[in-house]
Amino acid sequence: MAGEIKNPRRTIPVAIVGGIAVAAVVFLVVAATTLGVLGSQSMGRDDVPLFRAAVQAVGTWGGLVILAAAWTASLSELIGDLLTASRVAYTMGDAKELPHWLGSVHPKFRIPRNAVLTIGLIVLVLAMSFDLRRLLAVASIFTLTWYIITHFSALQLRKEQRLTTPLFSWLGLLGCLLLVASLPSWATLTGGAVLATLAGFRLLLSRYRTPNVA
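Predicted structure:
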């Protein structure tokens, strides 16, 4: 998304550090408040301790506020993921790794409209058709592979292109590998098989497109 951001060398680091700092403060305050209301034993009894703490401390209105916050957070996360995935599809379309029309930009709004609408439609169909919770572990393999490639690519940058030390990329690689090791073996095997199959198709397609030179 750097191509759509003004002064990305300054804006992106500020956004990352600022976002992490704000999220850390919010998480600590919410966790401390919930722990103080429910106690450690009661907090671990179910999957909705925030909801129970709000109802216990404020009443029904407190629970409704928590539900509204959860819906808002879910929508925000969905929009953020759609934004990210559509930019990946746009870049791959522009590089002709995906259909080239995905790499076009709307002439007026200057956004990859085709990529946004296509990814959004795919997500809608999948969410309405399947119980996606069973696929979360496999999806994590795809996401971590994406991050591993990103960190590895960052290590290939020249010194003058870097914003900071490559130590962060090495730590990112190590963290991704540890997370992969923590996932169920069936998810790792399934995700690896899917990625290997897609890579095979990509290799065959590239050979088919490349004409033989006598």
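Summary: Residues 133-214 form one domain.
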